[in-house]
Structures are given as structure tokens and as C-alpha cells.
């Protein structure tokens, strides 16, 4: 699907997007992954990309040293800006990841992206890792969290393309349906893709979520 279609979909979903975190069967796993995020981001200077509604920003900001949270979708940022954060610690910016300037020396120690990697086309992932290294600086820790596919809980995969990207049909607020890119990589696929661009890859999974940490080269 086109980038504009993806942007329109999430703009429509801004007010209701966080309902996905309310699924009863996911609560224990959600608490577990949140605890791991807080541990790894404690006292870090964080660049958050694709922050969306600020759901994760709100949770890790109290333990981080500082946060610059970015998204390219103003309706999402409007929701994020309405939340409460530690005074003077969090900045929000309307910005496309691909247009972010290179970091100044020691500006960031960590880059965080929640539920973003699954929306990146497989052919674009290598170049994106290189771009993140330029934006945040070599030696920065990259932290990704995302979904596992769980039969009966996840939206059914509707289509797989020739490159192995998988797509779901999502219902919009106006009742229409739109095809959304949503990949569910295995550990081996993640290690193969990340291996040339990073070091010290660590992957954790529970039933519903996975987390990857690594150091950008």
C-alpha cells in the first residue's frame, strides 16, 4: 500500500488506536514487555520514531533522561500532546523519519520504535537501518517492540506478496476496509536482516510481543 494510504488510515484511527492495548488476553504479556522497555530506556536520551498517540512515550518518559518523540501524523500527535509527561523532559515534533536531521554529538543514546518495524517493507529495511544510524549516530542502542502473529487474536493475514511481505485488511472508522502492511518476522529473519548493520542483537519474545535491542554500526 502507499505511504499516503497508511498515513490516512492512522489519522482516522488516532482516537481509538489504543483499544488494541485493552485486549484481556494480552495484559500479562503487555506488562512484561513494558517492564523490559522501561529497564532498557532508564536514564537514556531517547529519540522515539513513529510515536503515534504517545502510548509508549507516556510510559517510559518518567524513567528516561530525555525524550524527543516524532511522528509524521498530526492527529496522532494531537492525542499524544494531550497526555501528561514529566516537566521539561519530553519534546514532540511533527516529522517524517526520512527527513530527520543527523544527531549532534551525544544527542541521543537510544532510538526507540514501538510497533513500527512491522510496517516497513522488507526491501526497505536495510536502508532504513542505515538511515537510523545516520540520524542517531553510530553506537546508539536501537530498541524495537512489535507484535507476534497469534491465531484467534491477531487480524488475519489477507495477502502475502512475492517479497514475503504480509498484509491485513483493517476496518476504518468510516466502516471501509483498507489493506495494511503488517509483517511478523521470525528471530532468524531478524538476525539475518540486522546482522550486517548492527552488533549485539538480543531478542525476547512472549506470546503476543517481541523486543529486539542492538547497537547500530
Automatic annotation (TrEMBL):
Report keywords, A-Z.
Methyltransferase, Transferase
Instruction: Check the record and name the InterPro entries matching this protein.
Output: Methyltransf_25, Methyltransf_Superfamily, SAM-dependent_MTases_sf
Give me any GO biological process, just one.
methylation
Fetch the Pfam families from UniProt: Methyltransf_25
Q: Which molecular function GO terms apply here? A: methyltransferase activity
Q: What is the name listed in the Swiss-Prot or TrEMBL entry for this protein?
A: Class I SAM-dependent methyltransferase
Q: Which residues form the Methyltransferase domain?
A: 46-137
Amino acid at each position: 500500500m502507499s505511504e499516503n494510504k497508511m498515513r490516512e488510515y492512522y489519522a482516522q484511527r488516532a482516537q481509538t488506536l489504543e483499544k488494541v492495548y485493552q485486549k484481556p488476553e494480552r495484559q500479562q504479556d503487555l506488562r512484561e514487555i513494558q517492564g523490559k522497555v522501561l529497564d532498557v530506556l532508564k536514564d537514556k536520551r531517547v529519540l522515539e520514531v513513529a510515536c503515534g498517540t504517545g502510548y509508549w512515550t507516556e510510559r517510559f518518559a518518567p524513567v528516561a533522561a530525555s525524550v524527543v518523540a516524532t511522528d509524521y501524523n498530526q492527529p496522532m500527535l494531537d492525542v499524544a500532546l494531550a497526555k501528561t509527561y514529566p516537566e521539561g523532559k519530553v519534546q514532540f515534533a511533527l516529522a517524517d523519519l526520512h527527513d530527520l536531521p543527523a544527531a549532534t554529538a551525544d544527542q541521543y543514546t537510544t532510538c526507540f520504535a514501538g510497533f513500527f518495524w512491522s510496517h516497513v517493507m522488507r526491501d526497505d529495511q536495510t536502508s532504513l537501518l542505515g538511515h537510523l544510524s545516520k540520524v542517531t549516530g553510530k553506537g546508539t542502542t536501537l530498541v524495537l517492540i512489535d507484535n507476534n502473529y497469534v491465531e484467534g487474536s491477531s487480524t488475519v493475514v489477507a495477502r502475502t506478496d512475492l517479497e514475503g511481505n504480509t498484509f491485513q485488511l483493517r476496518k476504518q472508522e468510516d466502516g471501509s476496509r483498507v489493506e495494511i502492511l503488517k509483517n511478523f518476522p521470525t528471530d532468524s529473519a531478524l538476525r539475518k536482516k540486522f546482522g550486517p548493520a548492527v552488533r549485539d542483537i538480543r531478542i525476547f519474545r512472549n506470546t503476543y510481543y517481541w523486543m529486539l535491542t542492538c547497537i547500530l554500526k
